[in-house]
């Protein structure tokens, strides 16, 4: 049986790292879909200076940085803001409820990134290795 102390001191930081890594890899897929049409082709590649182009770059570069756990807090905060803007600009005008306007992933990414900005990268990260 795992003690409460072991859960809080050993396993919680490890699982925070797992949450960060999996979320970041899912986020990278949004960027690669927009920029490279992989693993799923989106609309034609966006102009990199458009809102969608900037979002794609943030998703790709920010997702990679988060997966590595490098500059976790500021990157997560920035990406949280990106997802809030994406929700209010692209999803909310289509209806109030996220299940109706297809904004569930934007809301979830927003709040997971906000949590990571506050909680940090967890025990498996470049940030932790750098001290």
From TrEMBL:
This is Putative oxidoreductase. GO terms for cellular component: plasma membrane. It is found in: Cell membrane. The keyword Secreted does not apply. It comes from Phyllobacterium myrsinacearum. Keywords: Cell membrane, Membrane, Transmembrane, Transmembrane helix. The chain crosses the membrane at residues 12-31, 51-71, 106-126. It is a multi-pass membrane protein. Belongs to the DoxX family.
């Amino acid at each position: 049986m795992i003690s409460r102390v072991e859960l809080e001191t050993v396993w919680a930081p490890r699982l925070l790292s797992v949450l960060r890594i999996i979320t970041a890899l899912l986020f990278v897929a949004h960027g690669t879909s927009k920029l490279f049409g992989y693993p799923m082709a989106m609309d034609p590649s966006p102009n990199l200076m458009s809102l969608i182009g900037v979002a794609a770059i943030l998703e790709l570069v920010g997702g990679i940085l988060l997966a590595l756990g490098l500059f976790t807090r500021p990157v997560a905060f920035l990406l949280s803001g990106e997802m809030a803007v994406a929700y209010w600009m692209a999803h909310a005008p289509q209806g109030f409820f996220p299940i109706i306007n297809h904004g569930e992933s934007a809301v979830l990414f927003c709040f997971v990134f906000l949590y990571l900005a506050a909680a940090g990268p967890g025990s498996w990260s470049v940030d932790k290795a750098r001290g």
